[in-house]
Amino acid sequence: MENKKAVFILLGQSNATGHASPMAEEDKIIVPLKNVYGLQRKDNQSFDINHLTWSNYLSAGTNLAEEQDDTYSLANCFAKLWQKEIDAGVKLPDLYIIQIAIGAEGVTENYMWYPERERKLIPGKLGEVDISLYPFTKHIFSLLDKSIDGEYEIIGIHWRGGEEETDVKLAHLKQVLRGIYNRMFDGFYASLGCKIPIVLHKMASETRCREMNVTGEDVESMHFINKTFDDLAEDNENITTFDVTKAPHFESDTRTNGIFLPDGGHYTPKTNMWVAKTILDDYRRKHKCLD
Predict the structure, then answer these.
(1) Cα–Cα distances in angstroms (integers) from residue 155 to residues 7, 198, 258, 282, in the given order
(2) Are 248 and 256 in contact (CB under 8 A)?
(3) What would the pLDDT profile of 228-256 be if each residue is shown by its tens digit?
(4) How high is the pLDDT of residue 1?
(5) What is the share, in percent, of the chain residues with pLDDT greater than 70?
(6) Which end of the chain is more exposed for a tag (fewer CB within 10 A), N or C?
(7) For 127-161, what is each residue's pLDDT tens digit?
(8) Buried b (16+ CB within 10 A) or exposed e, 102-135
(9) Which domains does the chain carry?
(10) Cα–Cα distance measured from residue 38 to residue 77, given in angstroms and rounded to the nearest whole number
């Protein structure tokens, strides 16, 4: 295996923050991880910094956007699993995690991920925080290369968003959605200086439609968003999709299909841990990481 540090990037909205899924006390990462590093908000949540300050990873303070800490987010699950594997003797490199997510924020005109939104950064909890996420993310990405010593590999940008666009008129989505994602991703590539892997996490459409009583055009919008993700993956060799309904604990005939919390919209800790393990297993196969 090449001796490169690894970088994992998680972007999006509530299912990237681990919304509604607080960690049990015994699961919180309160002792800094030895081989996993994150970006604390207090040191890095600014357009004015010119260098990233990495800290040994904790489950609190590492989402550079919304102040919702100690959740079973994919970032926290991935950090714990990576360190656990190293402690068990698996030959993995040090891991660096970037997490930028705010609940209920999509990519179209009325949301904080919209590429042409006026630059703004007001920190806080959900309902108070107001950050122009696209330019902020590009700024953070632009600092990555000079903020990590030695060689590194970006495992990928994992995008968990799309839900808010179900409230947008389908006709408008058909006109703008593909172009918005292309502009966003092109900007990310430019800031990072390379065309890195992007993984688009598809919404579990049928489950969400049933659990949230979504009907009519909203159902069509949800399927169109997933189709847009599929089309982006088909047309770009560096883009792939992730389907959480492939989880072994997915159940087709139960109320939340075994993957969602009772609210019908947010993933369970078990689901996020399965996603984290799937990503790590793919990395290990690719790099032949051995015990």
Answers:
(1) 6, 9, 28, 10
(2) no
(3) 999 999 999 999 999 999 999 999 888 78
(4) 44
(5) 95
(6) C
(7) 999 999 999 999 999 999 999 999 999 999 999 99
(8) bbebbbbeebbbbbebeeebebeebeebebbbbb
(9) 5-287 (3.40.50.1110)
(10) 13
pLDDT digits over 196-212, tens only? 999 999 998 666 666 56
Report the distance separating Cα 154 and Cα 180, nearest Å: 23
- Of 110, 117, 172, 139, the C-alpha closest to 46 is 139
Across the range 223-230, mean pLDDT stands at 95
Residue type at 214 in one-letter notation: V
Q: List all residues 6 or more positions away from 71 whose beta carbon is below 8 Å from its beta carbon.
A: 17, 18, 19, 21, 22, 23, 59
Reported as type and span, the H/E element at residue 196 is none
Q: Which residues contact 117 (CB under 8 A, 6 or more apart)?
A: 132, 134, 135
Give residue 212's identity as a one-letter amino acid code.
M
How many CB atoms lie under 10 A from the CB of residue 83?
A: 19
Q: Provide CB contacts within 8 A for 10, sequence distance 6+.
A: 16, 73, 74, 75, 78, 97, 98, 99, 100, 101, 158, 160
> Do 30 and 181 form a contact (C-beta atoms < 8 A)?
no
Contacts of 188 (CB under 8 A, 6+ apart): 137, 138, 141, 157, 196, 198
Is residue 240 within 8 A of residue 197, CB to CB? The reply is: yes
pTM higher than 0.70: yes
